[in-house]
Amino acid sequence: MQYYTVRAFTIILLFILSSCGDSAKKTKSSSAEKVKDTTVIDSAKIKETQQKKEEEKPFVLTEDNAIPFFFEYQKEHTEHIVKINTSIGSFVVDLYNQTPYHRANFIYLTKKKYFNNTYFHRVVKNFIIQGGNTDMMSTAKKRDSIGFYLLPPDTKKGLKHNRGVMSMPSSDDVANPHKLASPFEFFIVTAKNGAHHLDGKYTAFGRVISGMDVVDKINNVPAGKDEWPLKNVLIKSVEILE
Asked: Which positions make up the signal peptide (predicted)?
């Protein structure tokens, strides 16, 4: 009788231990699943947060995206008549459709109000006036917010540097063999007979159609040896007329 009692007790004990083992396994498995689920949720949250940060970043132009951007931009933004208001007076420019990237660039910067409160910072009498820069930190900050990019020349359209033509300056040195131009500046020819030695070298992308007398007034402002006017000529604003 005692034998059967011990045997029964042993069987019950083994059953209890087996049940505890199964319970532990289930608990362990359940915990692992919870950890796995939490990891998936955390990864999704991190990905969503990163995506939101990317979307919140302001768009800036770069050397890689500028041309594709302006290729699309010029299709929808077809404006080409702008009025440049200066501290000396105003004049009107017709931007050429034959140079779509340069026209689009000028319209884009105008809508960004980049040119507002910049200067005609270079004056060469009977040759050109050049605008779009200053010696102020605010201008540098505006450029940074828009982006760093250069525009390739578009000089094979046969466009001439006649008097009143607006063109895009670029450095003429070994470091810039392709004559890539800063998008933030422009110059206007004031020479009576034009400046045709610039043809095929710089991109003419517009012409003054009204207010050339104001351009001549700016060209007659006294300048120092560095060609910077002794009294700043302010570009108060650029507005789009059509």
From this structure: 1-24
Q: Of all helices (H) and strands (E), which one includes residue 95?
A: strand 90-95
Name the token pair of 38: 């939490």
Contact 80, 242 (CB under 8 A): yes
Q: Give me 195's structure tokens.
A: 């400046």
Distances (CA, A) of 17 to 5, 7, 28, 75, 207: 18, 15, 16, 78, 95
DSSP annotation of 33 reads H
Chain segment 32-44, per-residue pLDDT in tens: 555 555 555 666 6
Contact 221, 123 (CB under 8 A): yes
Alpha helices by DSSP H, 57-85: 66-76
pTM (predicted TM-score): 0.77
Q: CA 19, 21, 23, 28: dihedral to nearest 10 degrees?
A: -170
CB 133 within 8 A of CB 187: no
Q: What is the distance of C-alpha 11 from the center of its chain?
A: 80
Secondary-structure class of domain 66-240 per CATH: mainly beta
Question: Hey, CA dihedral for 83, 81, 182, 173, is it positive or negative?
Answer: negative
Neighbours of 141 (CB within 10 A): 10
What is the CB neighbour count within 10 angstroms for residue 88?
15
Query: Are the CB atoms for 208 and 215 separated by under 8 Å?
Result: yes
pLDDT digits (tens, 9 = 90+) for 22-72: 554 555 555 555 555 555 566 666 666 666 655 567 999 999 999 999 999
Residue 13, token pair as written in the block: 């004990």
